[in-house]
Amino acid sequence: MKTTFPQQLLRHAAERPTAPALREKEYGIWQTHTWADLAQLVEQIAAGLHQAGLARHEHMVVIGANRPRLYATMLAAQSLGAIPVPLYQDAVGAECIFPLNNAEVRFCLVEDQEQVDKMLEIREQCPLIERIYFDDPRGLRNYAEQGLDALDALIATGQAYVAQHPQWFRAEVAKASPDDVAAMFFTSGTTGNPKGVVHTHSTLLDRASAGAEFDKLTSSEEVLAYLPPAWIGQNIFSYSQWLACGYVVNCPESASTVTIDLKEVGPTYYFAPPRIFEGLLTSVMIRMEDAGTIKRKMFEACMAVAKRVGPALMDGEPVGALDRIKYALGNLLVYGPLRNNLGFSRVRVAYTAGEAIGPDLFTFYRSIGINLKQLYGSTETAVFVCLQPDNQARADTVGVPIRGVEIKVADNGEILVKSAGLLKEYYKNPTATAEVLTADGWYHTSDAGFLDAHGHLKIIDRVKDVGRIRGGANDGAMFAPKYVENKLKFFPHIKEVVALGDGREKVCVMVNIDFDAVGNWAERRNLPYAGYTDLAQKPEVYELIRECVEKVNADLATDAMLAGSQVSRFLVLHKELDADDGELTRTNKVRRGFIADKYGVLVEALYAGRTEQFIETQVKFEDGRTGSVSATLKLSDTKTFTPVKTAA
Hints:
By secondary structure, the protein is an alpha/beta fold. The protein contains 21 helices and 28 strands. The chain folds into three domains: about 260 residues, Rossmann fold; about 190 residues, Rossmann fold (3-Layer(aba) Sandwich), CATH 3.40.50.12780; about 170 residues, GMP Synthetase, Chain A, domain 3 (2-Layer Sandwich). The chain is about 40% helix and about 20% strand. A five-stranded parallel sheet has the order 4-3-5-6-7, with helices on both faces. Strands 12-13-14-15-16 form a five-stranded mixed sheet. A five-stranded mixed sheet has the order 24-25-26-28-27, sandwiched between helices. Helix 2 packs across helix 6, helix 12 crosses helix 13 and helix 12 packs across helix 14. It is globular. The mean pLDDT is about 90.
């Protein structure tokens, strides 16, 4: 699509001025912004930023949740030829210092008092910052910091300028080229400083359009924008595709109201990482376990029919008349009400990405009539590389290459991608750019995988993480930690896993339980506990987790390539892994190396064969205070299985 984001905005405003573009829930009421309203707001903000001195090719940081005026400010910056840089709203101040200085940021727009305080806290370490604008003025009345002002004041300045220069905005928008830089997204920085991924209007809109074509998206779609805008996954769905298609983006009132807002909006197009789908299913199962006997038996009977018949119906395969009748009855009694309760009654296409999704979880949603599919992509590829066709959605693949994508597999198993959606560069980092982009236009994904006989891509792990067992009975066997971790996370009682084994004679894992799911499980067994740490170390919980580990081992034993990755020992951590403690990235990916170093005493104990180990860990609370959590952890052995030779 050879155009720019502001040009798309003006096109929608001209063609459908009164159609809704954005909705925001405020004080419990949905407020609608039409395309004409939005275009006017963007023009005013752009004029205000122009008056304040924001220059073409300059970076402007935006920090906050999905809010119409934050989206409008990103469009306003792009209208001036400047480059919006969204940062994670839950990042601590120290995490913002490098991006702000690296991008030489003078202008910031933040959502509220919390974000203002964060910027003021680090301002001395970011000397280039001149202007900080805030959207929500609550709590900021008595702030008198230099360069701090309300977005409303900026808009008022812009209104006066627009009144005097009515043709200025369109002239500015017309200056932009599709090949100009449109946005920069910082990676999570798991192994060092984050890298700024530079994308043009052309790369983002090309992939947004290719994804829209694949799933036949139209301007009538409804989307709920509730994940961080700094994550390109959310950004591509609620910004790039929004402006490519012209559909409606709905912004929840707050993180705590997302579940309610989801039901009220009833999106037709939905995107979430597996952990969101896992959480929704866990809440359903907890409610059903607490339900009466008749209701629970009806649910179990209907779900048995759904599991057997639902996926075939979803894929358009032939199903017998009796089974169709049973499914229709189940739809009336269970599946329909369940979809409605989840907020998925109108979903036409639902996607998950970022991590592998469990086969049972995947099948559950498809069996009750939700068209859940997987996609493959990354920040550097503008997300859309592979998508699953409606009738070919499988839990063990991530889809087929879509329009404009070429894929090949290197000798070491690494996936290489060529498409019109590839990053322009890593900002100020030519060395890193040269490492991932070849001279002839191939991008090194760092993912290990292969294309199966049906042309679907399968991902095994990160190339750098695929290791080898050294010594013992499995000497030389392949070890894929992420593959093992994901298999364990498929169980509803397990939230996070860290697998260790590269260069060692056996595989050991450290587990985080899902506190809600295991807590409910414990309560139904009259098992008292005083909190996460206490519950995690209960002998009964260890037996529960051991069963999960041994089921995974039995499954791995049937895989000739990964049978050596079976887990020999495990422990349940005394605290939940947390991004604020540096253990997870802001996109909730495990920082395996950091954790192995931080919990080195536990790693040593696992491999030394000890049965318990004391540990004390420093933690950071939400209010910024630090404290410590200590416990004596149990370390447990698990059963492993002789590799099963499968028929060729």
